[in-house]
Write a structure and sequence with these properties.
2 domains; 11 strands; 3-stranded antiparallel sheet; Triger factor/SurA peptide-binding fold; elongated; 4-stranded antiparallel sheet; Chitinase A, domain 3; 355 residues
Length: 355
């Protein structure tokens, strides 16, 4: 639940902060399927019993904004709110603490889309009839039957196929305009990634990297009986750990015996900079080679046994290992910058009225 809210807040923040900065987002179309049909965009669905929910908006078609005279309705707004927080469809509402920000973010997004659509028309952009027909066919195929599609049309466009076709054409024009103004210019080449890497090589220098597994015995309190029992458990665990022949053997013991949080992941602490570990652990590691299991390491009243899975000497992470993620990160950042700049440019001479 916490991770769900964090992800949602990050998305909203990207939409409404820094002068209406607009997060990456596909043009909205009426949802062919309810958001509860397996959407997992923002993590696990919240537990309605633990979250205070606002009732779902009642869609009446009332105006919520005007953009250069074009009217945007509460239907457009609610659709975008569901795009930001799809689990509202499951629980018939939005979490009270998030609903105002979701609403603000959704309003900013539908205004931005309308501005982009109007800009596409100013540029005389068109959608080829065959492309529009293919998109319409693909959209219809999302429905379980022709009857389901007709029911949907009745709700969305009073049964008008022409009106739905226009919605699809509008979404395609927005996408085409964004491709031209944002997505294509935001592409980052391999040469640009290499140049950034070499210019910022210091970011990729690292100390020694250790990949450890651990079994930790942590007494819950300091009563003599508990401390004695913990020491005995630790000594027994050490004997068993010394018999572990590989990663799996040690990991299964960690899952069974360890009290630390890593026991749920085979005791695996993942490769990390050696500097995060306390001196007793580093001292034990000095004499170890990959596959070795340490003697019992006491730190206060707790005991730890470590297995060295691997070590990487101090050095620089090679370009080939960072290229993919770096290219993706650079492209996302540039996309965000270009979208924000486009949003500000389109708003500059626009007449926008929130109703």
């Amino acid at each position: 639940m916490k991770h769900l809210y964090c992800a949602t807040l990050l998305l909203i923040t990207g939409i409404i902060t820094a002068g209406a900065q607009v997060a990456s987002h596909a043009p909205s179309l009426p949802a062919a399927k309810p958001a509860s049909s397996g959407a997992t965009t923002h993590g696990a669905a919240p537990n309605a019993k633990n979250v205070s929910m606002t009732p779902a908006m009642q869609v009446t078609g009332r105006p919520v904004a005007k953009v250069n005279g074009a009217v945007l309705t509460d239907r457009d707004l609610l659709r975008e709110m569901y795009a930001i927080f799809p689990y509202a469809a499951q629980h018939n509402g939005f979490p009270k603490e998030l609903e105002p920000e979701i609403r603000r973010g959704a309003l900013e997004m539908i205004i931005f889309e309308e501005l982009v659509y109007q800009d596409a028309k100013r540029h005389n952009m068109t959608i080829a009839p065959e492309k529009l027909a293919a998109a319409e066919k693909e959209y219809r195929q999302q429905f379980s039957s022709q009857e389901a599609y007709k029911q949907f049309l009745q709700t969305e466009t009073n049964g008008s196929e022409a009106a739905m076709r226009e919605k699809i054409r509008r979404a395609m024009l927005i996408e085409a305009e964004l491709n031209q103004e944002v997505n294509a210019p935001a592409r980052i080449t391999s040469q640009q990634v290499r140049a950034y890497y070499e210019k910022n090589i210091g970011q990729y220098k690292h100390g020694e990297i250790l990949h450890l597994q651990s079994i930790s015995i942590i007494p819950p309190n300091e009563t003599p009986a508990v401390l004695k029992e913990a020491k005995q458990r630790a000594e027994d665990a050490e004997k068993q750990a010394k018999q572990a022949k590989n990663y799996r053997d040690f990991g299964l013991l960690a899952e069974k015996l360890s009290d630390d949080d890593y026991h749920v992941n085979m005791g695996d602490r993942r490769p990390q900079d050696a500097s995060i570990y306390p001196p007793p652990v580093l001292k034990a590691v000095e004499a170890m080679k990959p596959g070795d299991v340490s003697d019992l390491i006491q730190m206060g009243n707790a005991y730890t046994i470590i297995r060295l899975e691997g070590r990487t000497p101090e050095g620089t992470t090679p370009f080939v290992e960072v290229k993919t993620k770096l290219q993706s990160d650079m492209q996302k950042e540039k996309t965000q910058q270009l979208r924000s700049a486009l949003n500000q440019k389109l708003r500059k001479n626009a007449t926008i009225e929130a109703l």
